[in-house]
Write a structure and sequence with these properties.
Helices cover 47% and strands 8% of the residues. The chain is mainly alpha-helical and 333 residues long. The protein has three domains: 23-103, Dna Ligase, domain 1 (2-Layer Sandwich); 111-187, no CATH class; 202-331, no CATH class. The strands form three sheets. A two-stranded antiparallel ribbon has the order 1-2. Strands 3-4 form a two-stranded antiparallel sheet. A two-stranded antiparallel ribbon has the order 5-6. A hairpin with a 5-residue loop joins strand 5 (304-307) and strand 6. Keywords: Cell inner membrane, Cell membrane, Cell wall biogenesis/degradation, Lyase, Membrane, Transmembrane, Transmembrane helix.
Length: 333
């Protein structure tokens, strides 16, 4: 009987010790991480669970590695599958929450804004400067980029939708370009389906060219359709568009901030003071509002406009009225 009591006592003691050890282990997993401020941590591609736990301990993000190693021994089948990527670890986060974070899709994201009216070269410059973006196209020409995207015969200008794009480490500049290209195609197809009857534009691409001219001429919401109306009426009457942004685009790197009379007379494929109709390609990346204006121009009888110096324009019906507006807003200034 005494031996039985001793055995029961030992069993209870062992059980109590086991429970205490288990409770202590659980408390260490529930304890907050050992950081005082948000910490960026990257799980490398292909890194094992044990390697990440050891690294977290080495960097002082967790106080000790043993609770996580015990978890790996006990819960092999239910062990979190850690995801490669960057994660922001917050102070006060428990060890369990840390493992949940590192096995989730809550990776750190970055954003890249491509403004309306930029050129494709501007966009490529922004992509080259974007942090954590894999640079796949740095040594490629514009033609090679388009070939890589699967559109070798297309001119790149205007083909990419200006917007803010989110990405995470591991995404490449080519991935962003592909997204922007598909977005522009979708937006262009959408607005083309809503185009006005009788529009002097024969294809979605001509609408894209028109939208780029509108985008470069004004950023004023209420003017886009008015400017589109002027351009459409000039096309219908066989008048040249005579829009300065096309001259600037055709000058390329030669443009230093001013247009001379000689520049207006210079024959380039884009100089709409010299050529008839639309230029051969877009001259910028148009946004949604410019695309919509291109296929839905305002009705009216104006044929000219001139910048007033405050971002808006004065619209005229006749050449004499336009010349007076030029004297008022350009020559006098």
């Amino acid at each position: 009987m005494r031996l039985l009591k001793l055995f029961v006592t030992l069993a209870i003691l062992v059980a109590a010790l086991a429970y205490g050890a288990y409770a202590y282990w659980q408390s260490r997993l529930d304890a907050p991480v050992a950081i005082a401020e948000p910490t960026l941590y990257e799980v490398p591609r292909g890194a094992s669970y044990h390697r990440i736990v050891a690294d977290l301990a080495e960097q002082g993000i967790i106080a000790e590695a043993w609770p996580y190693k015990v978890l790996a021994r006990i819960s092999q089948d239910d062990l979190p599958q850690l995801r490669a990527g960057e994660f922001m670890i917050e102070p006060g986060m428990s060890g369990r929450e840390l493992l949940s974070l590192l096995s989730s899709d809550r990776v750190v994201t970055y954003s890249l804004t491509i403004p309306e009216g930029w050129t494709f070269d501007d966009m490529r410059g922004a992509l080259a400067d974007a942090p954590k973006l894999v640079q796949s196209t740095g040594d490629m020409s514009n033609e090679e980029v388009m070939a890589e995207l699967g559109h070798p015969d297309q001119h790149p200008e205007g083909r990419f939708f200006p917007d803010t794009y989110s990405y995470h480490k591991g995404i490449s500049d080519l991935d962003i370009l592909h997204q922007a290209y598909e977005r522009m195609q979708a937006e262009l197809n959408r607005v083309w389906e809503t185009r006005d009857d009788g529009l002097p534009l024969d294809s979605p691409y001509e609408a894209l060219i028109m939208a780029s001219l509108i985008e470069r001429e004004t950023g004023v919401d209420g003017e886009r359709r008015e400017i589109a109306g002027v351009f459409v009426r000039r096309l219908e009457r066989g008048m040249r568009l005579q829009t300065d942004p096309t001259v600037i685009y055709g000058m390329g790197d030669e443009y230093q901030g001013n247009i001379t009379r000689a520049d207006l007379r210079r024959a380039t494929p884009y100089n709409t003071y010299v050529i008839d109709g639309l230029p051969p390609t877009p001259i910028a990346l148009p946004g949604r509002a410019a695309l919509e204006a291109a296929v839905d121009p305002a009705e009216g009888d104006t044929l000219y406009f001139v910048a007033k110096g405050d971002g808006s324009h004065h619209f005229s019906r006749t050449l004499s009225e336009h010349n007076a507006a030029v004297r008022r807003y350009i020559l006098n200034r």
